[in-house]
């Protein structure tokens, strides 16, 4: 019962409401009995409007329901709700390999990622430290985690494309930034919850194996050890292409399909979530889902206010109905 109500013993007060209802029924029956005994029945019918007779018990019924709701309010009903986090750390890790130049997502994968990332930074709750890392052949920390989300928005505009894709380096760099912040806050025990959000469109190219000591899968396992889930976003389509310079000096159109499998595996290994997006709108929806998951937490607490409001309103309505229908309070 304590899981549903904070103060269940207050429900015993509902017995008083039941007793009040019973007393009302008894009083009404006695009054009717006396009226029949001492009055002319035909005259009684003629002076008592039928409409009033039909609805005279409605005000009391409304009032009793209101009192029952107030009794529930006193018992402190419990419910779960989303509460904005006042402490958390998020590292946004963005792939800037050359494949992000593909225009299968308008205007390009990179520009769409920049726009959606800035919107994500805008919507993220104020109490969250947000940082930004870009990665191609190596990883670069552009913004260390800070509650100043405008810093991340500014840095997103400065993202530049480069060769290769070192997914593991991006994750390791994110973990390093989180650990540095945690140390400054008093160690892992006192640190707020943290998460890495990794956006990428392609398969890791360096090192060759994702299970290499610096590979993406190894980094994901390390994140799991540190209790830092990595939520991955596979961004792009299977038909994406980019024009790259070939060894002969000419331009060559190269297919750059998204690689869902590796990003899904990284999410699973780290305990994070996996998403796909093939347009800016879809990416915005993914970030909206992540913002709700990261920016808020489910907390259980008292939720007596709706019961209190409903009970009070019914009690007032019942009282007014008694005045207008019965010309007196119940």
Structure description:
With 330 residues, the protein is an alpha/beta fold. The protein has 2 domains: 94 residues, no CATH class; 218 residues, Rossmann fold. Helix content is 47%, strand content 20%. The protein has 11 helices and 10 strands. It has a 6-stranded mixed beta sheet, with helices on both faces. Helix 8 links the parallel strand 5 and strand 6. Helix 1 packs antiparallel against helix 4. The longest helix is centred in the N-terminal third of the chain and has 25 residues. It is elongated, with a radius of gyration of 33 Å.
CATH topology of the largest domain: Rossmann fold
- Count of helical stretches: 11
List the domain count as a whole number: 2
Fraction of residues in H or I helices: 40-55%
The H/E string reads HHHHEEHEEHHEHEEEHEHEH
Provide the fold topology.
Blueprint: H1 14-38, H2 41-47, H3 50-55, H4 58-74, E1 78-84, E2 88-95, H5 109-123, E3 128-135, E4 139-146, H6 149-156, H7 167-184, E5 194-200, H8 216-225, E6 230-235, E7 241-245, E8 251-255, H9 260-270, E9 274-277, H10 280-295, E10 296-302, H11 305-326
Parallel strand pairs: 2-3, 2-5, 5-6, 6-9
Antiparallel strand pairs: 1-10, 3-4, 7-8
């Amino acid at each position: 019962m304590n899981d549903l109500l904070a103060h269940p013993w207050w429900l015993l007060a509902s017995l008083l409401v039941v007793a009040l209802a019973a007393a009302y029924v008894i009083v009404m029956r006695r009054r009717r009995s006396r009226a029949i005994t001492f009055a002319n029945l035909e005259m009684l019918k003629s002076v008592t409007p039928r409409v009033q007779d039909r609805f005279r018990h409605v005000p009391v019924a409304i009032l009793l329901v209101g009192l029952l709701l107030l009794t529930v309010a006193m018992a402190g009903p419990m419910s779960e709700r989303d509460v904005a986090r006042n402490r958390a750390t998020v590292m946004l890790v963005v792939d800037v390999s050359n494949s992000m130049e593909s225009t299968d997502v308008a205007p390009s994968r990179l520009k769409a990622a920049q726009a959606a990332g800035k919107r994500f930074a805008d919507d993220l709750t104020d109490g969250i430290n947000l940082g930004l890392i870009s990665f191609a052949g190596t990883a670069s920390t552009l913004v260390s985690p800070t509650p100043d989300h405008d810093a991340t928005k500014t840095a997103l505009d400065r993202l530049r494309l480069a060769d290769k894709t070192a997914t593991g380096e991006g994750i390791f760099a994110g973990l390093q930034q989180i650990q540095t912040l945690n140390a400054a806050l008093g160690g892992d025990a006192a640190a707020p919850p943290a998460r890495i959000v990794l956006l990428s469109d392609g398969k890791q190219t360096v090192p060759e194996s994702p299970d290499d000591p610096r590979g993406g899968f190894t980094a994901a396992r390390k994140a799991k050890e540190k209790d830092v889930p990595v939520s991955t976003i596979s961004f792009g389509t299977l038909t994406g292409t980019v024009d790259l310079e070939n060894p002969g000096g000419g331009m060559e159109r190269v297919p750059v399909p998204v690689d869902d499998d590796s990003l899904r595996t990284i999410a699973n290994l780290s305990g994070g979530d996996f998403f796909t997006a093939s347009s800016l709108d879809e990416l915005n929806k993914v970030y909206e889902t992540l913002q709700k998951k990261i920016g808020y937490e489910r907390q259980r607490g008292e939720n007596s206010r709706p019961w209190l409001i409903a009970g009070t309103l019914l009690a007032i309505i019942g009282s007014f109905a008694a005045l207008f229908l019965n010309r007196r309070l119940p």
